[in-house]
Task: structure prediction
Amino acid sequence: MRVIRKWVMMTDTKSNKPMNRIFSGIQPTGNLHLGNYLGAIRNWVMLQDSFESIYCVVDLHAITVPQDPEMLRASTREVAASLIAAGISTERSILFNQSCVPQHAELAWIFNCTARLGWLNRMTQFKEKAGKNRENATVGLYAYPNLMAADILVYRATHVPVGEDQKQHLELTRDIAQAFNSFYQKDVFPLPEPQIFGSATRVMSLRNGSAKMSKSDPSDYARINMTDDADMIAQKIRKAKTDADALPSEKAGLVGRPEAENLVGIYAALADREVDSVLQEFGGRGFADFKPVLADLAVAQLSPMGQKMRELMENPADIDAILADGAARAAAIARPLMAEVRDIVGFLGTSTDH
Ligand code: TRP
Result:
């Protein structure tokens, strides 16, 4: 399922720098849940074995829609805590929040002057997020993809793990890189490759197998939060909606049974197994049998993470120190790139942030 190519150490012949670098960003939101973990965070953890990895909590992106300042700060810490608890190494990888490295915003401005209205007008995420009242959307929401391109390219990242919904933004990033390189006749930016986790589990609500598991579901029983303790996880699985039939022994039998499909999918993802193999094992057995097995697995995998996350969140100063260290290391990469870009563009002088 999650086939990730082992990293072959490649070096850029010109600069002799390692060429494979991952960058990815995550929005600061509260109530992180199993869907966030299986959909993105777990992949980030695995990728750090094969790539030099830079992971960023994108607070600049967050304010493209209204945010309560205290909530934004809390969510930034919460997301950082969840990444650390899930196994992002703050030594091997770089973890920081976007606004602490001003080169993101600086390069984004330059990209505002590279990307065309026509390109941004095609972005489906803007259309969805702006909704009917487009006149009232912020300019930041519109220019969101240019900032995302800057996030990636300010580190010359070569690989970008993202969900399917971000594919179009990655294509735009490549267009911007290419347009910049070609306008200035300089081979500055690589064209980053998306690593789409297409096969990543789409985790659905535990109360309704047809709706995505969501932080904003009014029922807390619809989701397993990353901070839930063992009892809570087990209880939520016990209470999860199911149907009355036994599990099928092959995938085709899950069609039209969204709740069954969801629970089997969660089991397969947590066990790192194929759905088919799970069904071969459990086919013919009812949920009374399956749910306790799923609960045990979920508790074993998730509750230590929840515990770690709760501990971290009790010591916010530690999280802040980790992020500050990450920002300093990120800036050490972003500054020389930005100096080079300033020179290429024709700006006189040196940035005061150097
Ligand atoms: N737009 C991404 C999302 O909503 C988050 C993001 C911001 C990102 N900058 C990025 C992802 C750069 C990958 C690379 O999920």
User: Anything to note?
Assistant: The pocket of tryptophan is lined by residues 23-25, 27, 58, 61, 148, 151-152, 160, 162, 166 (CB under 6 Å).
